[in-house]
Fold this sequence. Notes:
Elements: E1 8-12, E2 19-23, H1 57-72, H2 77-88, H3 92-103, E3 106-108, H4 113-143, H5 148-170, E4 174-176, H6 182-193, H7 201-212
Antiparallel strand pairs: 1-2, 3-4
Amino acid sequence: xxxxxxxxxxxxxxxxxxxxxxxxxxxxxxxxxxxxxxxxxxxxxxxxxxxxxxxxxxxxxxxxxxxxxxxxxxxxxxxxxxxxxxxxxxxxxxxxxxxxxxxxxxxxxxxxxxxxxxxxxxxxxxxxxxxxxxxxxxxxxxxxxxxxxxxxxxxxxxxxxxxxxxxxxxxxxxxxxxxxxxxxxxxxxxxxxxxxxxxxxxxxxxxxxxxxxxxxxxxxxxxx
Length: 224
């Protein structure tokens, strides 16, 4: 499962008043990408690029990370993410990325397929093995409580690997959105990333709607 806050209390999200979990190992200490010189770009010349498009990559990474923390904390989201991840093979980090882009009237650049493939290799070679080991250790911990610190260490490592994945995605170029509706743009972006089987569409749309369409009366709850 995604472990955006494996051991946490609550804090206010940087971008709004919702309460979201805060990891004991501060997210500010998680892995970040390198070059500040790269920018999210490739906007059409017919419209001026939004101010945030000139942000350094580190700032974009922080923006996507804060977005991920807030959206993952919303009610019902964790179960939806697990279902799409475990039963349908979707990468939750990629879904957060396309939702984040869509709310900014952007979409992934298909020409960046090699960079996206490199980010996916990171996820498969780093994050997925850590997740598998953490899950495998859960049964052992029930019999040998001394292993709990090791499981928590794996959680923290998985968390940092997920943040690095989001940082790599945030650094990829983006194009202007092709539709004004953010939810529909996010779904279009998902179809660009991979084939969307008919059985995936309802849970995918439901999850993206939880993220993109605000529910002012919904109070997010910590998931750990």
